[in-house]
Each structure stands twice: as C-alpha cells, then as structure tokens.
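In response to a reviewer's request, we include the raw inputs and outputs for one of the modeled complexes. The two entities were modeled together in a single run.
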Amino acid sequence: MNRRLAIKQVLILAGGVVLLPSCLRNEGKSTLSLSNLDISLSQEQLLADIAEIMIPKTDTPGAKDLKLHLFVLKMVDDCSAPEDQLKFTKGLAYFEGLNADELKNRIAEVNSGKPGIPEASVDFYRIMKGRVIGGYLNSKYVMSNLVIWELVPGRYNGYFPVKTA
Amino acid sequence: MANINIDSRKKNTFDAIVVGSGISGGWAAKEFTEKGLKTLVLERGRDVKHIVDYPTTNKYPYEFEHRGELTQAVREESPIASRCYAFREDAMHFFVKDKEHPYVQEKPFDWIRGYQVGGKSLLWARQTQRWSDFDFEGPKRDDFAVDWPIRYRDIDSWYSYVERFAGISGHKDGLQALPDGDFLPAYPLNAVEDYFKKVVGSKYANRHVISSRCAHLSAPKQIHFDQGRGQCQNRVLCQRGCPFGGYFSSNSSTLPWAEKTGNLTLKPFSVVESVIYDDRLGKATGVRVVDTNTKEVTEYYAKVIFVNAAAINTNLILLNSTSTRFPQGLGNDSGVLGKYVAFHNYSARISAEYDGLKEFTKDGRNPSDGGYMPRFRNLLKQETDFKRGYAAGFNASRSPLRDTSGFGAELKAQLLNKELGPWRVGSHMMGETIPKESNYVKLDASKKDDWGIPLLKISVDYDDNDAKMKQDYIEQMTEMFTEAGFKNITPNVSSQAPGLDIHEMGGVRMGYDPKTSILNKWNQLHACKNVFVTDGACMTSTSTQNPSLTYMALTARAVDYAVSMMRKNEL
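The model returned the following structure tokens for the whole complex.
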C-alpha cells in the first residue's frame, strides 16, 4: 500500500490525478508476477496492442504471436532502473482509453517525434520500442527462422563474398 | 595422542603444495605431478569440472531469462563485477560478487575475481603474445622499477614448451618486438583488417598489424587430443566454458592432465590464510588453510610451496604470513612486498567506418578477435615525452543496415533486412603502466573477512605518463585511420578504474637484489628458498602483451628448477 501511495503522490506532484493508472483501481492484475511494476490486465492488453502495432503479423508472426509484450514487462520489471520503471508506467497512461485507430494514430504521432507530447510518454515509447525490438530479434522464432543464430558455426571466413543485387 | 598427531601430520604432508588453480596454478600442478611429486592444489572456491559444470554452455540467447542482460538487482548488488565485459547472464556464476568478498579501496580499483577451480582461466580473453627483450630490458633502459633478472633467452624454450601443450594459434610474423612461437595455424585477418595491415605496413617502417595470437586449437595435434580437447568450433562463447575444450583453461587442460598422473590432490573450498615459516629450520613448512564452509583450520605440509593465488591475493597471503623472522610478511626483508603494483591501461578506444571492400563480409566467428598491433612507440629508442608504449587491438566487421526509426510492417522489414551496412572498425589500447612504490596493496589494520583473514586495501592509480600515452594512442590511431581512408573516426576515452583490465601485476617482484625485490630469477623468494611465486604478482614490469602466456612459461620453468634443486637436496 505504501508503494501505491508513493506512486499516487508522485503522480499528483507530476501534475494531476487524471493520470492515475488503472492499477490503483480494483481490476484484474497482469498475468505476470511482477516485482516492481504495477500493471493491470487491461494495461497488459494495451501493451500487447502497442507491440503489435510496432511489429505486426504479416506473412510471419507478429508481436502478439511472440508474446513480446510479456517480454517487455519482464525486462522492464527486472532490468530497468527504478526511474525508467516509473517513466514506463507513468507514460503508458497517454495511450490508454483509445480505440484501435486512435491508438495507431497516437503511436504514429509519438513515433514521429511530434512536439507537445508529454515527456513521460516519449520516455515510455522509447523504452517500449527498444524492448520490443530486442525481444523480437532475440526471439526463438526469429533466431531459428529469419535471422539465423548458430550455436556452433565451426568456421570463419574473413573474405565472404557479398551477393550484389 | 602423539601417534594421532604424527598420523595426521603424515596424512597432510605432500611433496608440493600449489596455492590456487588458475592459469599458473594449473601449470604448477601439471609440472609437479608429471615429475612424480605428490601435489596438493588448494582452491578457495568450488570445484568446476570440465564440461559437467558449464551449465550455460549450450544455451541459445533466447534461453536466458533476460537474454543475457544483467538485472537491476544484480547490478546494484555487484557494481564492480558488473563493469566487467564478461559478467553477463551467461557467465556471472564464474565471477565473485562484490558482497561475497569485500576489499578496501583507498583509490577506485575494480578487482575482478573468479573464485573456483580454474579461476579466471575459464574467463580470460585468450590472447597470448610472447615478451621480447624490449620488454625484459625495459626497466633498465628506461630507468624505472628494477632490472628484470631474466632475459628472453632464459624463457624462450619455456614459451615453446607451454605453447605446444596449451595450443597457441598464430603466424610467424618475424617481428623484433614480438617473437614468433610454436604455433598452430593462425586465424586469418578479414578483408578490412588485411587492408589496414597493408596501409600501415606501407606507411610506417616499424608498425605492423598481425593476426592476434590466441590460445585456441585451430588445428589440434595429438597432444591436444590426448588432453581430451578438440578443434575450436568458432562459437566465441568461451566465457561459459567450452564443451570442445577449444580454448586453453586449467579445467580443460592442465588439471585433468595432472589428475591422470595419480599424483594430484585437489581441495576446493580451501582458502590459504598464510604460509607457515619455521624459524628453526629457516624455511617454510606448509600452509594454514581455512575450510570456507566449516571454517575449520587445517595445516598442510610440503617441501616446496608455490603461491599462485592470483596477483593480488598472492600479495595478501605473503603479507599475512608473519613470523619472528618475517614480521612484515614472508620474504619481506626489503619492505617492497605489496608495492610496485601495476596494470594495463585499456582506457581508450577508437572506432570508425570504411566504405570500401563492400564485396566482402565475414562469415562465422573469429575466436582470435582479429588483428593486433605490437608496440611501436619508443621501441628502438625513446621518441616521446612519456615512457614505454602501447599495443593495440584492431578489428573490422559488418552488420545489416537496420533503420529502426519507423514502426509497423516497415520496422519489421528493416529488422529482417539482410543488406549490409559499411564495415565498422575498432581498436583499443593496451598501455604499459610504470610500477611505482605509491601503487600498492596492504592488509587492512582491523577489518577481516568471514574466515578471519585481513581485508586487502588497494591503492593503485593512473599517472601523467598514462595520460600522455593515452593521448598519443588516440593521435596515432586517428592518423593511421585517416591514412586508411576510414570515416567518422570517433575516439572514446573512458574513465575506467585500474583493475578492470584484469591485468594487475606485481607486488612480489623479481629482481637481482634482495634489497629491492622479493623473488630471484627462478621466481624463488630471496629469503625463503622453498617458496615460489609465478603468477602475476611476480612481474617486475608489465610490458604491453597480455601476461598469461608469460605466467605459464615462468611457472613451468620454476617448477623444473625447484624439482632439480629438491633432487640435489638443495631446497
């Protein structure tokens, strides 16, 4: 409870109770057991939607198929510095309560660096995007099928010819 | 009672005791046991058996919970270890965590340690260049430290001896500054490394870029198969321990070899508190050991003792070995024990891009890490306002062009893009630092560790010579990169503390004169002839080459000498 109170106070200091994340309401919790982040089930779903907008399903799996949003949560929860964790949860609010088109538009705006976007949201987006990209490139699917990573290369060629188009 | 004591003394008596199982301790164990001596190897950490105890060795990146990254909790708990490039999720179980083994920093010093059987030989960067007389004659010519009591001719054949067994890959480059060895085939330079070699070779008379020489089995011989090792498979995941035994470590090579003789007793969880000196006999009789789990104290006895606890801990043990004869630490009549500690200056790097040779890339992985430039500064004569010089690494690679500015299908396509970007080149310096009395380690007067052993206090810093050398490295590399037509040349000067180079040396230096050194030319204490030090602590100066190969050669040479003296009853 003290932690929530602390978050509430920080949010108030940061400019108003309207940014209260849904975790302060009585709602379903994230499906992951998190130690530092307070994320609701609906926020987790929102993160899945944002990740899917960043890396959509095409003829190959997208972010939702690879559960990249859960990877992001795990990494931010375990590996990010406390100040980045705070930015992450705080900045997420800016993307809440939008329909699918609105969400996509908002992501396009933030991605383009449009002026006037709340700083915390820019920070959230940077952290989210970096982790989604890292999770994608380091996923079993990509490493096994698209950008192959070899455990035992057994060779080295310093003059490997590059095919030109 | 008397009989029980005699029995227990007999049970705890060996021909030789080796303190430490890292790169030099492993060699001492191999040499002693091969010569038929019953040898006790004491290791303060746990056992790590080759292959069996490499839990991460065959994992894919996505099998690590955090894809290799350190968690915030680990970084907060071990800020020092976390600064080491190899302390990542795949190998952090082979490093000492800060909290487990505290020490006192009078000045910032990142002490990176591996407390387990094999020590840091599991984790090392595997670069193995010989020293030359430019190095052994350095202190005398340039008037610092004390003269080395050996020259290249004293160690040449021992280099060959350890190279043949360990397996060192390299070219015979015929360079004055970097003698050739007994090599397996070298790993080749790639297209841009080769190009840079040609540019440097054509513009500068005494500057050379060669294939790094490294302790990898590029083409193993029977002696390596006999160790149970096989060809390096270019995984470059070495810090996890290699299931092929592709690189040299105590675990894959010297310790199993020693074990096969039937003469080895290896005791993990055994920290040496001190060497026992007998005032009446005038020599050391054994070591006092604390069991790290039970804290029980046991004494072990032997005719000869090799202290190979890793440079700084070897200093600690000798400083803590006090007696009526040696109130300041074993062999420390001169008062120089713990002083003149030095290291390698790795605090500058430089990177750039090259637009040419786009018809090539590299395929597979190079375990040698690419190119190496032996020292060229102040080599034949003094030419700058700083002493000595630096070696430099040089490597080049290409990776796909990935513009991550977009999102959606466009971003996804970029991430999967196979089109390669330009070659990126990089170099790092390895500078010789000058051993000084003011760079020292000593025992803390009051603080002790969990085993009752005084904490070590470290006071080691850079000096003006290091700053000038670093500046020169940046200037010279910038000039060479410019000559080669590299673009976006970006120097990167770090403020990393000494220690992070993991090349700490000295404190128990070799020398001719017992008044100014601790060890003689056989790595034997001037004042206590049956105790030897052949790890980094023995180094009189640091040169610019990675030091491990020299520790191996000095160790094999010292064991050979010790055993010949024992056979003549002169030890």
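As requested, we also summarize the result in words. The interface with chain A takes residues 58, 60-62, 65-67, 69-73, 187-191, 193-194, 233-235, 237, 358-367, 404-409, 411-412, 415-416, 420 of chain B (CB under 8 Å). The longest strand of chain B covers residues 297-307.
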